[in-house]
Amino acid sequence: MQFFYKCSECGREFEIKPDLMVCPACSKKQELNKPLRGILEVDFELQDEDNPEKFNVLDFLPVRAKFFPPIPVGNTPLWRPVNLRKILGFSNLFLKDDTLNPTGSLKDRASYLVAAFAKEHGIKDVVIASTGNAASSMAGVGAAQGLNITIFVPVSAPKAKIIQSLQYGARVIPVDGNYDRAYDLSLEYSKITGSLSRNTAYNPLTIEGKKTVSIEIFKQLGRVPDYIFVPVGDGVILGGVYKGFRDLKRLGLADTIPVVYAIQAEGSDAICKAFENGSFEPINARTVADSISVNIPRNGYYAIKQLKDFGGKCVKVNDGEILEAQKLLASTTGLFAEPAASASLAGFIKVKDTLNRDSVVVLLITGNGLKDIDAAKRRLEFPQRAIRNIEEIVR
Ligand SMILES: *Cc1c(COP(=O)(O)O)cnc(C)c1O
Known about the structure:
- Helix content is 35%, strand content 16%.
- By secondary structure, it is α/β, with parallel strands linked by helices.
- The strands form three sheets. Strands 4-5-13-10-11-12 form a six-stranded mixed beta sheet, sandwiched between helices.
- It starts with a strand and ends in an 18-residue tail after the last helix.
């Protein structure tokens, strides 16, 4: 395949190059405190020698296989949660378990492609702002590729995610401010130092890299699911999920696009709000699900366009529902997901009575629960009293 960038707004085409991140024309329309303008999408033309039926997952991506780092990203299991199926009454419910990526989140899919791209272009330094998972992901996947990773994180990011990044050898710069502030500072840093930005949505390869989750789901199921539930913060995973199914359809491999449910936390609902009202208003995000806590969803315009074009839906869940879903998931399936990742299940529980019980439903489980034990602890009774002998608990 021959790959190039295409502006998601004006349709202009560009060569894929390290110093091109957003459409030079449409990004001029960027407004303060609004989602990114001029998001670039990876587009392709089939070549005579291409046979999509024979494509491996990496053949769908715009960097050749030999440049990818030696670390097993993706290929995560799609499995049948038997107990949960019984409890919820859906016999074709599946979990796509992306907690099993090397650094414990779906973000590895984007880092994997960015790391490959860096290698292809002889780039050594990569910088990223993140609430935690994208940072620790770039740090880990970057370590496998031998890259120098600089990370801007809000001071409030969960400790485990920062410790992960430090273990992987990244340079961690805590920011006295929120994610949005870290985002802006990291962009300034990348302009000053010339390092490659892996900021989500801004680097087009972050959307493209995440599409592999859809290609895997399609191959694993042998069909397109009826519904897929996706937790949404910046809307990049959502965009990637759509991009994967769109590519499959364009290549004649799949014949439909699934109905995508975008799940947001009530306290961080910028995309759902804009989906209803048509415009993005500044919000002050507050939710236990830190990975989907976002004031300005960077991929907002693009995400809404996909939802509108393909009949997607937006559903909000509150923190109580998220933590309950987290507990239900862990205690019935053995899969311990972080709060943001549990939002998929919370959203599904909320709308399931409106869906046909035979539907093929996939819940995207995006991140591991151990990444944020403070959040997980909130709904648990932590055993307080230590025993000295067995009689204290057994009569
Ligand atoms: C980043 C992330 C999300 C949300 O992805 P966006 O692209 O920001 O919408 C959901 N769950 C987890 C675990 C994440 O790390």
